[in-house]
Amino acid sequence: MNSNDLINDIINDKELIQAVLSNKRNKELDYNKINIRPIKIKNDFMYQLTYVYSNKEIHKNLLPKDTVDEIIEHINKNFKQAQMYCINNDYQILVNKKGKANVLKKKATKKTVNISHNRKKKYILEEDVPCDFLQYLGVMNEKGNVKKQKRDKFRQLNRFLEMVKDVEANFDKNKRIKIIDFGCGKSYLTFALYYYLVKIAKFNVEIVGLDIKKDVIEYCNKVAKELNYENLSFQIGNISDFDEFTEVDMVVTLHACDIATDMALFKAICWNSKVILSVPCCQHELNTQIKNDLLSPMLKHGIIKERLSSLATDSIRANLLEIIGYKTQILEFIETEHTPKNLLIRAVKYKGEIDKFLIDEYKQFKKFLNASPYLEKLLVENNIIK
Ligand SMILES: C[S@@+](CC[C@H](N)C(=O)[O-])C[C@H]1O[C@@H](n2cnc3c(N)ncnc32)[C@H](O)[C@@H]1O
């Protein structure tokens, strides 16, 4: 039996109960296995693929035809084994060293599952569990039910906290952790951060939110006081002038427009901050600089130039952080359907040796784009890099 035809039939005929792709042969793959199950979203029959990493899971919901393509591609390139539990039979696909797939057919061992509704996702901030700041900010009611129009916000807060949870091992439980949120705005995420670190993860923290808007800061201080969040305070001020702290454990900057993100990253670097979480937005800087004839098929379209400039800006930021000694990842903050501003730069201070090749690579990239990044200028002016 041809494995591609089998996969095609199982998926399109809705035969599959559960599948597991495992036994990695592509060692560069970040995740270790993929679990697959059928799922119904609204009225669409789809498959949920769960990419299992050593410290997290990422879910992707795909239509049947895309699921077939994804499974076949993984069997061709990445995994040696696919275990497929189906209604009438189980199948094991084993890929040999030459890349040939063999199919073993066995008796069915799993019972059909009811997929008529989504399983409830387990969030850090749980649904149906009343949470003081979420009630105060109108995300949930006093019974803990999340309001329909606030579901995206609720998911975004939880996604953000998952990213915080992933790096909390960098903080010392026996010390007070200092955190600053630059450009905090209405501070939903700042309150979430405080709630998670203090009430759930039991850290001793001091969080300061900073913003140039007086009314916003007054409101946030009022909320913090009414919630009795003792070590959470908000100040009016400009990121570049903030010099109240000499040491900071984590710098957060979410949707701080254009070069405000660079100012925040620069401060974090100067403080040697252990962790930086930054969701940039409105990356206009490179849009006026970027120039390269080879890229003209892209640059001649305004919208593409804008997106390319944004991505190049964030790549430059991530690379500069790496050059300075941060292990840096760019992660999807929230599904793109909710906001196009959805990349999060997560940087964790790294004690190992820095790859010298990174500097040359960075310089070539910058030259190729004709870019003079503001973050680099700040770092050079302050003798942090040459
Ligand atoms: C788009 S809002 C984001 C608010 C919040 N962090 C969030 O993600 O919901 C950007 C905030 O950054 C603040 N901001 C921009 N430039 C700033 C600067 N140089 N110093 C302090 N705050 C700044 C603005 O006042 C605004 O409240």
Structure, explained:
The protein is α/β, with parallel strands linked by helices and 386 residues long. The protein is 34% helix and 27% strand. The protein has eleven helices and 14 strands. The strands form two sheets. Strands 4-3-2-1-5-6-7 form a seven-stranded antiparallel beta sheet, covered by helices on one side. Helix 9 (302-324) runs antiparallel to helix 10. It starts with a helix and ends in a 5-residue tail after the last helix. The model has no long low-confidence stretch (mean pLDDT 91). S-adenosylmethionine (SAM) binds next to strand 9, strand 11 and helix 7. The site of S-adenosylmethionine (SAM) has 17 residues, from strand 9, strand 11 and helix 7.
- Output the CATH topology of the largest domain: Rossmann fold
Report the average pLDDT across residues: 91
Q: Which parts are unreliable, with pLDDT below 50 for 5 consecutive residues or more?
A: none
Count of DSSP H/I helices: 11
Total beta strand runs = 14
- The end-to-end distance, rounded to whole angstroms, is 61 Å
| Strand percentage | 25-35%
String of helices and strands = HEEEEHEEEHHEHEHEEHEHHEEHH
Bound molecules: S-adenosylmethionine
